Amino acid sequence: MAKTILIVDDSTSIRQVVGMTLKNAGYEVIEGVDGVDALTKLDGRKIHLIISDVNMPNMDGLTFLKQVKQMPAYKFTPVIMLTTEAGDNKKSEGQSAGAKAWVVKPFQPAQMLNAVSKLILP
Fold this sequence. Notes:
Blueprint (H helix, E strand, L loop, with lengths): L3 E5 L3 H13 L3 E5 L2 H7 L7 E4 L8 H9 L9 E5 L4 H10 L3 E4 L4 H11 L3
Parallel strand pairs: 1-2, 1-3, 3-4, 4-5
């Protein structure tokens, strides 16, 4: 059975590129346009991994991440932050909020899949 990954990014093109990369690797993909929208997708279904942008309107990625970690069903779901933010401050903020990996845009599809395969539970 395919593993399901939630992609959260306000950029349609990023969601398409990440989505295609993951679908080609055999994953199922759900998309959220920002943190608020993504929270509505966390409706009890099994999500194996979340890939989230940091800078988004309505609710940024770090706020979204903190909210996800409050949800019993998704508390242990690994989260990869995919962002243009390369600064150490943001990274450590992300780590303390519970992010498992930090991938900086523009990213290489192989680099993304490598991070995904390390984090996704069999």
